[in-house]
Amino acid sequence: MAILYEQIQEEIKPLDLRFSNDEIEERVDHLTSFIEKQVSSGDFDGVLIALSGGIDSTVTAYLAVEALGSDAVHGLILPKEVNEDENMSDAECVAEMLDISYETLDIDEIVSEFLDVYDVDTSESDDRWEGRHVGNLSARVRMTLNYLVGGFENKLVLGTGNRAELATGYVTKFGDGGVDCNPLGNLYKQQVRQIAAHFGVDKSLVQKTPTGGMVDYGTDEEEFGVDYDTLDAILALHIDGGVPAAATARLTDTSREVVAHIRQMHEQSTHKRTPPTTPEPLI
């Protein structure tokens, strides 16, 4: 087993959700078996992963290679102008480290074509939500390319979202949320980092500040309003564990307003985690 990094070994506050060493081995086996079953049940030739250079897509790629071997894993790197060059370089490094095939497709021109068709001028707008719509469009362009390439290559499209992102709706519906399966979907962020360290992922990637990479609005944690460790704790206690809001606020050393904000994010994003609804049939 790889030596865990200092920040993984130290106590995580306000709530330590990490696995024991035995549990890590068990969880990795469980996740790799899950990937194998998803591929075999659909008679796919392997998996496709959109590599962002972040920790989630990196861990997903490591799990896929562990499950299927490098020849069965294909990476797509889909840069946009807002992405830092560092992210794309990290994505390439991950692909080369794992010896998986990959290709880079720039999506800016495709996104611009959509905006030209709809005749949207975003250059003079200060509307944050208009920018978010363009960010969602970018995510959906990436999803479309994932399935285009995945279809030609007969590859299952693996999602890379973790529990914190999925539970708060920090995904684009039919964008990065449009995947065949999500191996990390039940893992809190600190658990993803721990598994990354278990695999020996470079320390700089484990500690890297996560960003959405669609619009230039800062980091994930700035979007949430709390750091990931606190978000994990609120989700584990209040959303997943049923601990009352007031007790959760005390246990996480936050305010009830923060807990209520996370709960609101969870409730308002229910539609992203469920199939499209239909009316009850008339009898």
TrEMBL record:
Name of the coding gene: nadE
Domain NAD/GMP synthase positions: 29-276
Name of the protein in its database record: NH(3)-dependent NAD(+) synthetase
Gene3D superfamilies assigned: HUPs
Pathway annotation from the record: Cofactor biosynthesis; NAD(+) biosynthesis; NAD(+) from deamido-NAD(+) (ammonia route): step 1/1
Assembly, per entry: Homodimer.
CDD domains, sorted: NAD_synthase
Amino-acid positions noted as binding Mg(2+) in the UniProt annotation, renumbered to this chain: 56, 165
Reaction equations catalysed: deamido-NAD(+) + NH4(+) + ATP = AMP + diphosphate + NAD(+) + H(+)
Coiled-coil regions listed in the entry: none
Species lineage: Archaea, Methanobacteriati, Methanobacteriota, Stenosarchaea group, Halobacteria
Keyword Metal-binding listed: yes
Family of this protein: Belongs to the NAD synthetase family.
Organism: Halocatena salina
UniProt record, GO biological process: NAD+ biosynthetic process
Signal peptide: none
Superkingdom of origin: Archaea
